[in-house]
Write a structure and sequence with these properties.
The protein is α+β, with helices and mostly antiparallel strands. The protein is built from 15 helices and 16 strands. The strands form four sheets. Strands 1, 2, 3, 4, 5, 12, 13, 14, 15 and 16 form a ten-stranded mixed sheet that branches. A two-stranded antiparallel ribbon has the order 6-7. Helix 1 crosses helix 2, helix 7 runs parallel beside helix 12 and helix 11 crosses helix 12. It starts with a strand and ends with a strand.
């Protein structure tokens, strides 16, 4: 198997969804961060072999969005592209798929990543309205049309929000926030602990921006209203423990502890990386950011989907004969503060290791100083198709800044899965 290197990468600022559709489509976001990335390369864009992009909610006019992105970037008609969907880990799956293509020798250069415009998630008609429209369109005579019109009911106008449906598991009938409440209860994680973690995420991200660390991975966005975006708009620099404590639970209003303040945000954003074989690195004289060593995936009970990273990381470390202490930096996507803290508790639990992971001893919790040291999705946001690529890019950039080492990028996945990628920074 060929070695697989990450040459470079870039992401957009992550833009928090407001009360109207965002100003960038998912394809716009990916193109805006990939174009300057390609401009830095010594080879022609047409020399890229494939484009692979993760996206969960592409717009109706962005079918196979990876192909649209490749064509808009000017790679040429001859460069194939495909889109992958693994819910919250779609961006990580795109990188895993690209890694496999390069490792197996099918491609030398692959542009891969993820993108999502969650603010543009479609609002649909309900099934009663759809059926009524069908009857109305089939009506030919005046009598049939009047009969169809008489069947209309105002309740048919009730919209269906595809984003809410997508964030709810259809089998266990729980939304992602409710699953966070379940794991918080299982590991006795308090509201105060969740709020403290959320506050730390915001403060770490603010410090990273203020020190200039984030500039090396973010490409600014310019919209059609002459507005300039260079920083993640979900970052709340002015928040404090008192403000977070005032927020009411969202998913279990009577007994819950998960609030909008200790959860990730509905967000638009993209992250794209360029993967290369050793042959391509030598041929084009490319500088290497790091190496993708391998990935692992795991399934868990959908009602406790936040624990997916516990299992995926356990599999990954076991395969590579590593311990948690061997990992210099971990990026664990912060879907919810409760979910991150639950993963830490599970890794540290002898009972969980024995009963759930079939391990003789627990892996041990990740050192908090090496876990999301520049903040995470609670402050940055979680555009579901992009987050896996975002955390991998940041992991590599952060490790390189610290002198190299091993890192793990991992996410929980709606539907009850976990994914993890092992990287080595140059």
């Amino acid at each position: 198997m060929n070695k697989v290197f990450v040459v470079d990468g870039a992401r957009t600022p992550f833009l928090k969804a407001r009360t109207e559709p965002g100003r960038f489509s998912a394809a716009d976001l990916a193109v805006n961060c990939a174009r300057p990335l390609l401009a830095r390369m010594p080879f022609k864009p047409s020399e890229i072999d494939e484009v692979i992009v993760g996206c969960v909610i592409p717009a109706p006019d962005e079918a196979n969005i990876a192909r649209i992105i490749g064509l808009r970037l000017g790679l040429g008609n001859q460069v194939p592209a495909f889109t992958v969907q693994r819910n919250c880990a779609s961006g990580l799956q795109a990188l895993a798929s690209a890694r496999a293509r390069v490792a197996e020798g099918y491609s030398q250069l692959v542009l891969a990543g993820g993108t999502e415009a969650m603010s543009r998630a479609p609002i649909q008609w309900n099934s009663d309205m759809t059926a009524w429209l069908g009857r109305s369109l089939r009506a030919r005579s005046l009598g049939a049309r009047l009969a169809a019109l008489a069947g209309f009911r105002p309740a048919m106008l009730k919209p269906v929000y595809s984003l809410l449906l997508g964030l709810t598991d259809p089998l266990v009938k729980l939304n992602m926030g409710q699953t966070a409440e379940i794991v918080a209860d299982r590991f006795a994680i308090t509201r105060e602990e969740q709020d403290a973690y959320a506050l730390r995420s915001h403060r770490r991200l603010a410090a990273a921006f203020d020190s200039g660390q984030m500039k090396i991975e973010i490409e600014p966005l310019f919209d059609t209203r002459a507005q300039y975006h260079a920083e993640d708009t979900g970052l709340r620099r002015d928040t404090d423990a008192d403000q977070l404590a005032k927020l009411k639970p969202v998913f279990d209003r009577k007994y819950g502890s998960v609030t909008s303040g200790n959860s990730s945000q509905v967000t638009d954003g993209a992250a794209m990386l360029l993967l290369a074989s050793e042959q391509a690195v030598k041929q084009h004289g490319l500088t290497v950011l790091g190496e993708l060593l391998g990935d692992e995936w795991a399934g868990v009970d959908p009602s406790q989907m936040g624990l997916g990273p516990v299992h995926a990381v356990a599999r990954l470390l076991t395969r590579f004969k590593l311990g948690m202490r061997d990992i210099d930096h971990m990026e664990l996507n912060e879907a919810f503060a409760a979910q991150v803290l639950a993963c830490q508790a599970a890794w540290d639990s002898a009972d969980y290791a024995r009963d759930e992971l079939a391990l003789a001893a627990p892996l041990g919790a990740m050192d908090p100083e090496r876990l999301n040291p520049e903040g995470g999705a609670v402050a940055i946001g979680h555009p579901v198709g992009a987050s896996g690529a975002r955390i991998t890019l940041h992991l590599l950039k952060s490790l390189a800044r610290r002198g190299g080492g091993l890192g793990v990028a991992t996410l929980c996945i709606g539907g009850g899965q976990g994914g993890a990628m092992l990287v080595r920074a140059a």
